[in-house]
Amino acid sequence: MVYVGTTTAADASAVSIAAKEERNISAYGYIRVSTKDQNEDRQLDALHSLDIPERNIYVEKQSGKDFERPRYKQLVRRMRKGDILYVMSIDRLGRNYSEILEQWRMLTKEKCVDVVVLDMPLLDTRLGKDLMGTFIADLVLQILSFVAQNERENIRKRQAEGIAAAKARGVRFGRQKKEAPNDFGRIVNDWEEGRIAIAEAAAMCGMSGSTFYRRLHEYRVAEGK
To answer: What is the C-alpha to C-alpha distance for residues 92 and 161, in angstroms, rounded to an integer?
Structure first.
C-alpha cells in the first residue's frame, strides 16, 4: 500500500521545531581594535549595514597580544548553535596563525555557529556545507591566517629596523636626560656641609630627588670621589 501526501503528527512537530529554531537564529558582530586610541567606526558601519542589533555587537578595545578578552568570551558564551558571527577580518579572531585556527575550530565545530568574514567572501561557513565547500573554506582560512601572522611579523621587523637606523643616525628615544647644572659641584658641597636639605638641592638643580642622586653618583665617579 502506498500513502501519498500524508503528514504524521511527528512530521508536523519536526517541521514546527525546525521553523522555530530557524526563527531563533541570531546574528552577532565582533569588533576589536588594538588600542583605546583606535577608532572602530569602520567596523561598526559594516555591521550596522547588516542590521545586526546593537545589543548583539561586541566591541573590544584591547591589544591582541593575548586572548584574555572579556567581551569576546561573553559573546562566545551567549551564542547558540546555528547563530551567525560576523567579523570584519580574520585577524579579529586571534593574534597569530595557530590561535586564529583554534578559535575558528571552536566556533564552527564546538559551538556550531556560522562565521562570516566580511572582507573575504570565501570565508562564509553558510555556503558550501558539503565536503568540497568545507575543504575550500578551511584552505582559504589557513592561507589567510598565515598571511595575517606574517604581516604582523613584518611590521615588527620593519619597526625594529627603523629604530636601529634612527639610533645609528644619533636619534635618541625616550625621555631626555636631565643634565646637572654648571654649579652642581657648589650645590653638592652645600648639601654635604649641611647648609641645604636634599629636597632644596634637587630643586635648585631642577630635578627630582632620585635624579639628583643619579647625577651625584656620576659626579663623584667623574671626580674620583
So the answer is: 26
